[in-house]
Structure formats: C-alpha cells, structure tokens
C-alpha cells in the first residue's frame, strides 16, 4: 500500500456527475487548487454500505463547505451508472439528493494511482490480461490541502464504512495547526488545546491532562 501523505495528490481528468444530474467531461482534481479536498473512493454503485456513506457526507456537506473543503467521490462505475443511481430515491436504495461530484474511474487509473484498487491483475503465459477478484476501489479517503498535498489518508476494507465526523475532525486538526502552529495530541477535537512541539510543551500538556 502506497503512503501518499506528504506527496502531491495524483491529478486526474475524467467524466463526473455534478449537482446530482449533470454529466461533465474533463473533471479534474487540480481545478480545486486553493481549496481543501476530501477525496473518497467507494466500491460500487447500487450496493448497500456505499449509499449510507454517500448520504452521510451529503448530510455534513455544509460543514465541509464552511471549512473551505470540497467533497469528491470516486468509484470505478461509469458516469451513466452514477447518473442512474442518482435518480433513485433514498427509500429505494438510491442516492438522490447527493450534490457533490461523483467521478467515473471507468478505466480504474485513478484508483490505481491512489493505490486503492482491489484485486490482482496481470498477463498469463499467452500474453492475455487476467484478473483475480473484482477490480473495484477500497474505501479510501484522502485529505488534500490547498497546495494539492495529501495530509491524511485512510483505507478501509470493503465491508467497513467510514466515520464522516472523523474526516471533519482531521480537517479541523490540520487547519488548527496551520493557523496556530501548534500540534494536535491524541483525541484532539475542535476547541481543545493544542501543544507546542517541544519537551516543555509536551510536559505542560501532559501535566494538565
């Protein structure tokens, strides 16, 4: 598994559905330079855990926006599949009401470049392309800063849904560090004290906690 933290997030150019209805070509990550981005991958449209995650991000979308954060989802389905799922109501297992972009990683290059593509592939002795397991994305999440650098990543196996509040907490921690210059200790939450990255600073913090 590649660790992308501290590196430039791989850019991409792909089709996407935006505003819950419009299919656009040439959707790129780089167009959001100057904003923070939460880029998250999910395995498949029309499944079970995935809609719970997509709706959970939508429910907190205003909180992300208030922090200058763009939320972008990616799966290996086509843009037509995304669009069809967006027309299906929540009561019927759909994702109607999702307004943030959903990118179509149809050729699987985005998932590969972020090293979240499940399954194995290669060539056999007859030079034929073969694959073992479904080539779908794990539940990867990447927090990208305003300069396009990955500052946090999390990858869950397919059955394990993510905690959207934790994504918000990590954004708050990053922005706190950028603003105050103080680091965030274990279980830090917005409004908590930070600490200075010195022996005295750590000792002072531990004495209070």
From TrEMBL:
Family indicated by similarity: Belongs to the peroxiredoxin family. AhpC/Prx1 subfamily.
Sequence ranges assigned to domain Thioredoxin in this UniProt record: 3-176
GO molecular function: thioredoxin peroxidase activity
Cellular location(s): Cytoplasm
Keywords: Cytoplasm, Disulfide bond, Oxidoreductase, Peroxidase, Redox-active center
InterPro entries: AhpC/TSA, Peroxiredoxin, Peroxiredoxin_AhpC-typ, Peroxiredoxin_C, Thioredoxin-like_sf, Thioredoxin_domain
Key word tRNA processing present: no
UniProt-recorded name of the protein: Thioredoxin peroxidase
Pfam families the UniProt entry points to: 1-cysPrx_C, AhpC-TSA
GO cellular component: cytosol
List of catalytic residues: 50
Function recorded in the entry: Thiol-specific peroxidase that catalyzes the reduction of hydrogen peroxide and organic hydroperoxides to water and alcohols, respectively. Plays a role in cell protection against oxidative stress by detoxifying peroxides.
Domain of life according to the entry: Bacteria
GO biological process: cell redox homeostasis; cellular response to stress; hydrogen peroxide catabolic process; response to oxidative stress
């Amino acid at each position: 598994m590649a660790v992308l933290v501290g590196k430039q997030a791989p850019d991409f150019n792909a089709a996407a559905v935006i505003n819950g209805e419009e299919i656009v070509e040439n959707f790129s990550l780089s167009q959001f330079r100057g904003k923070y981005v939460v880029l998250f991958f999910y395995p498949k449209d029309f499944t079970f855990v995935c809609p719970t995650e997509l709706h959970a991000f939508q429910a907190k979308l205003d909180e992300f926006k208030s922090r200058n954060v763009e939320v972008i989802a990616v799966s290996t389905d086509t843009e037509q599949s995304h669009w069809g799922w967006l027309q299906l109501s929540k009561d019927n297992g759909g994702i109607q009401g999702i307004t943030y972009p959903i990118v179509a990683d149809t050729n699987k290059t985005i998932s590969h470049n972020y090293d979240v593509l499940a399954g194995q592939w290669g060539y056999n002795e007859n030079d034929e392309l073969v694959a073992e397991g479904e080539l779908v994305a794990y539940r990867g999440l990447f927090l990208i800063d305003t300069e396009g650098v990955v500052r946090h990543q999390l990858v869950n196996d397919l059955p394990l849904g993510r905690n959207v509040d934790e994504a918000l907490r990590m954004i708050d921690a990053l922005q706190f560090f950028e603003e105050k210059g103080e680091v965030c200790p274990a279980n830090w939450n917005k409004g908590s004290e930070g600490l200075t990255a010195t022996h005295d600073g750590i000792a002072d913090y531990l004495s209070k906690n």
